[in-house]
Amino acid sequence: MIALPALTALAAFLVAGAQAHGGVTSWSIGSTTYPGWQPFLPASQQSATAGRPYTSYDPILNPTASTIHCNDDGNAGPNPQSISINPGDTIVGHYPQWTHAEGPVTVYLAACGGANCNSVNSGSVKWFKIAEKGLISGTLAKGSWANGILMADLKWPAKIPTNLKAGAYLLRMETLALHQANTPQFYPECVQLIVGGSGTALPPAEYQVSIPGGWGVSVKVDIYGEAAKTQTTYNIPGPRIWSGFTGIEIPGGSK
């Protein structure tokens, strides 16, 4: 029989392991906060939420994993909601914890093509990138990264493009942790939005990608290698950022 102190220590260890890393558990626009998916609760105990389901804070280690779109099988939860937002507004993803300082943060949108995204599988849509931040200053080995900001602030903002066409969208917020050599760790979470306004713009095809499919194994990087000691640029995976205005581009893929 295991002694009670040993059981207590084991339970504490298991809880700590379950709580490692991090993920989005709520969203906000201005002063209004919306519940997100709670990954350690079963579906039957979830509040009505616009957050898409995921089951843990554990990373996705395969850059082309079938679940890498929204960290799940692609379907909405049992009582799906949508958050209303206007072009030009900022939505913030809130993390109860984040434990890795190295790596980029990216934000994607995907049009659902209907009144809402409730029946849309996130593996079937085309995604376009609206924001990214990676290596801010310094070198790969000793630099300041977007993930360091997230670790300090435990939140990440994303501005909806100002001329985006009204409709239903999935928003995908992803942290990519690079602290383990040649083993990128992906942490995507998604939320359902209804974008209002009178915008008319959608990105042309060259900005849109399937996920998985938007990048491959070339995302592997060793921030502890000899080259990383002097390298001051980092190519963020995925397509170029789409600005929200047809014909106007904001180059992505660096820093």
Explain what you see.
With 255 residues, the protein is mainly beta. It has one domain: Distorted Sandwich (Coagulation Factor XIII, Chain A, domain 1). The protein is built from two helices and 14 strands, in the order H-E-E-E-E-E-E-E-E-H-E-E-E-E-E-E. The protein has helices at residues 4-18, 146-153, and strands at residues 26-29, 32-35, 83-85, 90-94, 105-111, 127-133, 135-137, 144-145, 155-159, 167-177, 185-195, 208-209, 241-242, 249-250. The strands form four sheets. A six-stranded mixed β-sheet has the order 3-11-10-5-6-12, with no helix packed on it. A four-stranded antiparallel β-sheet has the order 2-1-4-9. The chain is globular and about 50 Å long. InterPro entries: AA9 (IPR049892), AA9_LPMO (IPR005103). One of its GO terms (molecular function) is cellulose binding. It catalyses: [(1->4)-beta-D-glucosyl]n+m + reduced acceptor + O2 = 4-dehydro-beta-D-glucosyl-[(1->4)-beta-D-glucosyl]n-1 + [(1->4)-beta-D-glucosyl]m + acceptor + H2O. Pfam families: AA9. One of its GO terms (biological process) is cellulose catabolic process.
Largest sheet, strands/sense/barrel: 6 strands, mixed
Count every beta strand, where a strand is a DSSP E run of 2 or more residues: 14
Q: How many domain modules?
A: 1
**Which strand order spans the largest sheet, edge to edge or round the barrel?**
3-11-10-5-6-12
Spans with pLDDT under 50 lasting ≥5 residues?
A: 1-18, 247-255
| Quaternary | single chain
Mean pLDDT score, rounded? 90
What percentage of amino acids are in beta strands?
25-35%
Helix content: under 10%
CATH architectural category: Distorted Sandwich
General shape: globular
